[in-house]
Amino acid sequence: MIVQWYPGHMQKAKREISELNKYVDLYLILLDARAPLSSRNEQLESLIKDKPKIFLLNKADLADEKKNNQFLKYFESINQRALCVDCLKGTNVKNIFKIAENLLKDKIEEARQKGKRRKIIRFGVLGIPNVGKSTLINKITNSSKAKTGDKPGVTKSKQWIKINDYFEMLDTPGILVPKIEDDLVAIKLCAIGSIKDELYDKELVAKKTIEIIKKDYCELLNKKYSLDFLNMSEDEYLIEIGKKRGCVLKEGKIDTLKAANLFLEDLRKAKIGRITLDEIGDR
Ligand code: G4P
Which of 48, 64, 86, 134 could be disulfide-bonded to 148 (CB atoms 3.0-4.6 Å)? Predict the structure, then answer.
């Protein structure tokens, strides 16, 4: 087992979504563009029942552009609305409103015909840890109310934040527990930083991630570390990264844990390049 996991978290997430469902008109479900399938939890998603949803492939600035487009086509092919966004810079965030209005156009029209005031659309945000939920809420509401970072207890009571006359947003996101279906999904979630560090073996994850990305991104890897993968195993590759980056223990041995940390940091900050770990066919 790559990650030690506790089923109790799933129960808590289920309770949270049932609570959110009482108030929310439309969900913004954040996925990590670097692993849009692995960062999805369809089991928990099903609890929102027939409420409309928009998938936001966040951190698109860190993901492979070609694959961003492939994944958008994939979501279209399964009849789901999806957008690639960068919540830090706000790229594409405005388009959320157009899509939301379109998804709820029948309800808006129904209210208009009844002579009622236009319905206010209430957004709820869902996603696994570290995917950018608070960053999105801050970006949309221009507020620092939704504090970034996973600090339990930061937001105790939920509040609606007015965006404009037509939209409101819940200041507290719903945290989806990652669905770790197999070791490959677990490795990818660890690699992108969705799993707490203390729950997995960093060296193992670094080596397995190198194994996953070397097929499509071998050139990027070799360029970053001035190495050549030919005739090298993942273990050797990590040792070589350690040598290059001066990760040496007192007794002269290579500190592979430090090398793994450096590699994962490089990967997460896209210092190796824009890399996507999932493939369309993974699901
Ligand atoms: P969460 O509420 O879903 O847990 O995520 P949060 O908004 O706290 O964001 C997690 C990290 O991801 C933050 O970095 C945030 O700046 C970064 N982030 C969010 N959206 C984007 C995006 O579109 N592009 C990029 N490049 N980064 C984004 P952090 O505070 O530095 O944390 P960490 O990355 O060191 O964990």
Answer: 134
Give pLDDT tens digits for 100-128. 999 999 988 887 888 777 778 999 999 99
The CA dihedral of 85, 91, 95, 97, to the nearest 10 degrees, is 90
Task: Give the mutation target among 31, 34, 83, 88 for probing the ligand 1 site: most ligand atoms within 8 A of CB.
Answer: 88
Does residue 39 line the site of ligand 1, with CB under 6 A? no
Pocket of ligand 1 contains residue 135 by CB under 6 Å: yes
Q: Is the pTM of this model over 0.90?
A: yes
pLDDT computed for residue 155 by the predictor: 46
Locate the ligand 1 atom nearest the alpha carbon of residue 138 and give its number. Answer: 7
Report the SS3 class of residue 173.
coil
Helix (H, G, I), strand (E, B) or coil at 169: strand
Closest CA to 178 of 56, 38, 12: 38
